[in-house]
Amino acid sequence: MRKIYIHCNGGFGNRFNSLIVGLLVAHVGNFEPMILWPTNNWCRSYFQRLFKNKFPVTPKGLEYVSNRVHDFTFYSHCMDDIPNATATHPDKFGSLQGLLDNIGLTDKDVVYNHDCIPKWASADYRLNEIIKGLEFQDEIREKADAFLEDHPAGLTALHLRNTDFGQNLSTFDELENTVKTNVDTQYFICSDDKELEERFTAYANAFAYPKTAYVQKMVEGIAWRTDFTHNGKRYSFNVERSDESVKEALVDLIIMSRCNIVHTSNSSFLKTAKLFQNSR
């Protein structure tokens, strides 16, 4: 059986997009999936720390295949990690079958890497089945369940993405006013910024899961989004997401997926919560 190597990199939302579409291609095209889930500053959690699914997984990224690029056909939005390889952008295709037909032009194994969901995948009903088949570790799910049991009346979720995303401060002011004036609505506040979370949960009708870890800067004293070099490696985002911060963020994600979600940004994390909500 031919293999598809699904490269999942970046923050959790970006990784999840590549994961579910890669698994969709594997399912429909009858490929054996191998997940490349690098542990790095974007996400220090190993795949197995987050999911119960028993897929073959390596904590390496594209370097796992970099020494034999001629053995693979690459479908990717970015090949910076393997500049000597060429790739076709997944968005080029109008349907999943179009991608599978292109894969069929050779007998090579496939490498798939895309931090967004192509339109042809979003429109495929089988994508929801892929999402339903992914299981978070019990520790993560049970914490979300316990929080939701304490709020049986239901919650409206506000995702306040700050840090490396850098939303306009006036947006937070408007959202705060919404919480302040709609006192009969109970809000779930989900943020990567502890101070911002505390600012909103000061209101009696706003609640947050009590996280112990948040995203940090890799290097203090410089901006969240900037080009810099650290330990000889180039970076464009000054972020460090510990294992615990990622796991607790997934508790937030599960809670948010079971709330009435207000669209507050184009964050991939927010979109992932909606994916889970729509697959239920």
Question: What does this 3D model show about the protein?
Answer:
- The protein contains ten helices and twelve strands.
- By secondary structure, the protein is of the alpha/beta class.
- The strands form three sheets. The protein has a six-stranded parallel sheet with strand order 3-2-1-6-4-5, with helices on one face. A four-stranded parallel sheet has the order 9-8-7-12, sandwiched between helices.
- Helix 1 (12-29) crosses helix 5 (126-132).
- The protein is globular and about 60 Å long.
- The model has no long low-confidence stretch (mean pLDDT 93).
Structure summary:
The protein has 280 residues and is α/β, with parallel strands linked by helices.
Helix run count = 10
Spatial ordering of strands, largest sheet: 3-2-1-6-4-5
Largest sheet: 6 strands, parallel
Range of strand content: 15-25%
**Uncertain ranges:** none
The rough form would be described as: globular
Radius of gyration: 20 Å
- Order of SSEs: EHEHEEEHEHHHEHEHEEEHEH
Quantity of strands, as a count: 12
C-alpha end-to-end distance: 31 Å
Average pLDDT = 93
Helix and strand composition category = alpha/beta
The helix content is 25-40%
Task: Summarize the topology.
Layout: E1 3-7, H1 12-29, E2 32-36, H2 47-50, E3 57-58, E4 72-76, E5 87-88, H3 96-103, E6 109-113, H4 119-122, H5 126-132, H6 138-149, E7 156-160, H7 169-181, E8 187-191, H8 194-201, E9 206-207, E10 225-230, E11 233-237, H9 243-257, E12 260-262, H10 268-279
Parallel strand pairs: 1-2, 1-6, 2-3, 4-5, 4-6, 7-8, 7-12, 8-9
Antiparallel strand pairs: 10-11
